[in-house]
Amino acid sequence: MASTTETKQKKMLILKSADNDEFEIEESVGVQSETIKNLVEDGFTFVPLPNVYTKALIKIIDYLKKHANKTDSNDEEIKTFDKDFVNTTFDDLFELVSAANYLHISCLMNMLCQTIADRIKDKSPEAVRKIFHINCDYTPEEEAKIRKANAQAFEGQFDESLD
Amino acid sequence: MVSLRAWCDLPSEILREIANGLGLVDLLGFRGVCKDWRSASFTASALIESACDKPCFLLHSDRDEKTILFNPSTNKNYTINIPELKESTCLASAQGWLLVSQKGHIFFFCPFSRAKIDLPPLLQESVISPGAAVFTSPPWSVDCVTAIIYEKDNHIMELNVLERGGSSSWMKYEYDCKMEQKNFSVVKGATSHDGCFYFMGDKNKLLTFTLKDKRFELYTIVYESKNPNVECLPFRFKEKCFSRNDLKKQMNLGDDVAISTCGTSYSGSDSEILIKNENIEAMEGTEAQHFKGVWIQPRFFQLPPNYSWSL
Fold first, then answer.
1. Which residue range or ranges hold the F-box domain (chain B) (predicted)?
2. For B30-75, how does the pLDDT look when each residue is reduced to its tens digit (9 = 90+)?
3. Cis omega before residue B304 (within 30°)?
4. Under an 8 A CB cutoff, do A128 and B28 touch?
5. Which residues does A79 contact at the CB level (< 8 Å), separation at least 6?
6. Is the dihedral of CA B237, B242, B244, B250 positive or negative?
7. CB-based contact B31 A146, cutoff 8 Å
8. In whole angstroms, what is the distance from residue A128 CA to residue B247 CA?
9. pTM of the model
């Protein structure tokens, strides 16, 4: 009985981004996010997301739609989609991972964190600081100590590029 | 609209997750970025490295605290300062932990986090090298049992066993090869399986010791047999891993370098694998420079602040 009603009339949700754009999605797509699921269970159909900007939200809705239709046969297609999804700039990855964390979408979180980990592979701490716009808060003495205890690649093996 | 959030404001759970996805060398770098990143990586242990079944090789010496780490998966060399390994000998290596002997002290050591766990001293003053050792599980495990074996006098093997949950000192067991009219002396590697220690000797000899009934048993390893009573080893072993892979060249070491290596046991794709100890000679006619080395899983373990070996 329940399934017939669902096919006839899909339950919809409205998501509102931090920059006040509204998106309508199917409830079954949205509840892959634990945060949205909890709100839906409390009877909400309008979900304000003050921590998620439009640009990231559009991408995340795409991701949720794709993954909601996961079947045995489209495994390869989803893999390709995921690969394209993470093929973006560090700044975009940052927005996406913050949003995925806020929305509690664990599979997306894992994928984004592993992507970031893979992308900082072989980079020196200096290059990592530049990429992530981080100020080093170690004193020069502390840094010298850390540098000694760190694995120093033989010359020329560190990747100093910023992408 | 583009937000101007800063990466350093990233919640620590995200940083933790990123740190968990890093291999050893990148994790060490990650910890050097800033203080927040360092504290967020407290639980990261370079677990990703255990998925690759090739252990790394760590070269150290008595002269210098500088060590060289070679990663065979990437063919890269790194230098790391590890003062604790100066004038030390590794007796055993498993799951990212080393059992180290240094001037009469015995301790567990994770060389990359420099976490160290002191063990009670062995009673005798003797030099336990050349000998071999094995531990059944990581030193934080309550079931960790450590065994060190060496040739005490002519034809007497002395085994020292320390059970974490048991006695606070080492228990001694002797195996008299002469009395048994058997020949077992040099230990070339050790591993354990299911409450039994396996010590590999030369000439295909194998000495076992079962923890439950404290009994020694001597075997000869055969490679093929039609005898139905022949038992199977619960692990595979590899010999001459260093020389066969031409690591001297890979690590840019000269012909005058001589190395005594400590093997390791690890889980391969289909079975447990023991890399045996090995002695690499310097090229004849050169004045040998002596080094030590150990095969190790490149893991990063920190001890909880309230950790103590005795339970």
1. 4-51
2. 999 999 899 999 889 998 877 666 899 999 999 999 999 999 988 8
3. no
4. no
5. none
6. positive
7. yes
8. 31
9. 0.88
